[in-house]
Design brief:
Distance between the termini: 9 Å
Helix content: 40-55%
Number of domains: 1
Order of helices and strands: EHHHHEEHEE
Radius of gyration: 14 Å
Number of helices: 5
Oligomer: single chain
Shape: globular
CATH class: Alpha Beta
CATH superfamily: 4'-phosphopantetheinyl transferase domain
CATH topology: Ribosomal Protein L22, Chain A
Length: 123
């Protein structure tokens, strides 16, 4: 095991960020993540959960914000419905440098909080 990361996001606070900085969504989330979120009546909770997963991924690698482009960490739905990480560019390079070859992800949200836990594993 390389590391474990967890993160909580206050959904109301996240909603405020999205209102103040509309370009945030395009900078942080990839197209597939935005499409998935937009399928909900209120996409904020889905985006907040994915943001929590991005931060938890950083933490699982022992890194902080700014270490990589958050858009290079993508949360997708696996064929069986579970969430899965797909790493690109700077995130893939950081994972390789840390020796992480696999990630376990769990995400959840309520009306008020979004939570994610990531376990980074070596082969």
């Amino acid at each position: 095991m390389i590391g474990i990361g967890t993160d909580l996001v206050d959904i109301d606070r996240f909603r405020t960020v999205l209102r103040r900085t509309p370009s945030f969504v395009d900078r942080v989330f990839r197209a597939e993540e935005r499409v998935y979120a937009d399928q909900a009546n209120d996409p904020t909770a889905r985006l907040a959960a994915r943001f929590a997963a991005k931060e938890a991924t950083l933490k699982s690698l022992g890194l902080g914000l700014g270490a990589m482009a958050l858009s290079d960490i993508e949360v997708v739905k696996h064929d069986d419905g579970r969430p899965e990480l797909r790493l690109h560019g700077t995130a893939a390079a950081a994972a390789a440098e840390a020796g992480a070859t696999r990630f376990l992800l769990t995400i959840s949200h309520t009306e008020h909080l979004a939570q994610a836990t990531v376990v980074a594993l070596a082969s």
